[in-house]
Specification:
By secondary structure, the protein is of the alpha/beta class. It has 14 helices and 12 strands. About 45% of the residues lie in helices and about 20% in strands. Its main location: membrane.
Length: about 325
């Protein structure tokens, strides 16, 4: 019982692997009495520190990152520190970042990198911030489940469906415009709205800043997008892999040919250097370093994020970052004073 308690306390205070090693030494038959006494004292001190950590942590931002961060928050509050309340919202990357640069939140989740103008606002407002990758996501092109004709497309075909004027001057696009064997039915395009980093990633990075096809149905809530696509046989939409994985009974998916054969997104190939690399992106959380310095709850939760991100990322539809990378971010957090 003492060994288990010691390990839990060390983990709660950021002990990591060193804490596990010390605990193992304390319970080993060859450890000296002096070492045991020293380690027991350290455990008692850490226990006091852990009990002292309480308060609230405010997080907003990306709807894509929300399932991962809310899962981490749940685990933290239930199993790590019930004395801390972690509040996770999902206004969208850009809307959440606006709250963050004004000092309203401790973390801002994002499905794209922080913008230069946001950094300038932070500097003007005295916000000392650091951007941390937390996982990998794959942009996923989804269909109505009964769509059995467009399940394999080239990347050029996919993107032409969303780019204004790419197929038709008036943006009325038929499936048969892409392949003459496909139905002569109008294609309906869907995606998240401008509040979301996923929208910005798709428009800015994947279609090089070109306008979306007129009439594209853009939504704030991903659950609404899933519902709309699942009810429209001529729908095609885009969002992060996690929302597809959690709704596979309602959605079909496009296997994309980037030049070497069709690739269906999965946690095995969502990687910056893998088969699905052209549609893979990092997702982030931005940490207010002053909040972490002044509020032990913020710093402790930040540490915990990188303790469990590799384990919880796949559970929420993300590919994990390498363990050594996450460990490096954890050490950076622990070094905040």
């Amino acid at each position: 019982m003492m060994a288990v308690t010691t390990a839990a306390v060390l983990a709660a205070c950021g002990g990591g692997d060193n804490g596990a090693e010390n605990n193992s030494e304390a319970s080993g038959s060859n450890a000296s009495a002096e070492n045991n006494a020293s380690e027991n004292t350290a455990s008692e001190n850490n226990s006091g520190e852990a009990e002292d950590i309480s308060g609230t942590v405010a997080i907003d931002g990306s709807g894509t990152v929300y399932p991962l961060m809310s899962r981490i928050a749940e685990e933290y509050m239930v199993n790590e520190n019930p004395e801390v309340s972690v509040e996770v919202s999902r206004a969208g990357t850009s809307a959440g970042m606006q709250r963050y640069v004004e000092g309203e939140t401790d973390f801002s989740n994002a499905s794209r990198e922080v913008k230069e103008e946001e950094l300038e606002e932070m500097e003007a407002n005295g916000i000392n911030s650091q951007e941390f990758p937390v996982a990998l996501d794959g942009m996923t092109i989804v269909l109505h489940p009964d769509n059995d004709w467009a399940t394999e497309m080239t990347v050029e075909e996919v993107e032409s469906l969303f780019i204004s004027g790419a197929v038709s001057d008036d943006d009325t696009v038929m499936w048969s415009d892409i392949n003459e064997e496909w139905p002569e039915e109008e294609v309906n395009t869907y995606g998240p709205n401008e509040n979301h980093g996923t929208y910005e990633f798709f428009v800015d990075e994947l279609i090089d800043g070109q306008d979306l096809k007129e009439g594209t149905n853009l939504q704030q809530e991903y659950s609404t997008l899933v519902e709309l696509v699942s009810e429209d046989e001529n729908a095609i939409g885009f969002f992060g892999y996690g929302y597809y994985e959690g709704s596979q009974d309602q959605l079909g998916v496009v296997s994309i040919d980037f030049g070497d054969g069709n690739i269906t997104p999965s946690l095995d190939n969502i990687d910056l250097e893998g088969e699905y690399a052209p549609y893979t992106r990092q997702v982030f959380t931005n940490l207010n370093l002053d909040s972490a310095s002044e509020n032990p709850a913020v710093k402790d939760f930040a540490r915990y994020v990188f303790d469990v991100a590799d384990e919880l990322a796949p559970e929420t539809g993300f590919a994990p970052l390498p363990e050594d990378e996450l460990e490096g971010y954890k050490e950076e957090v622990e070094g905040i004073e």
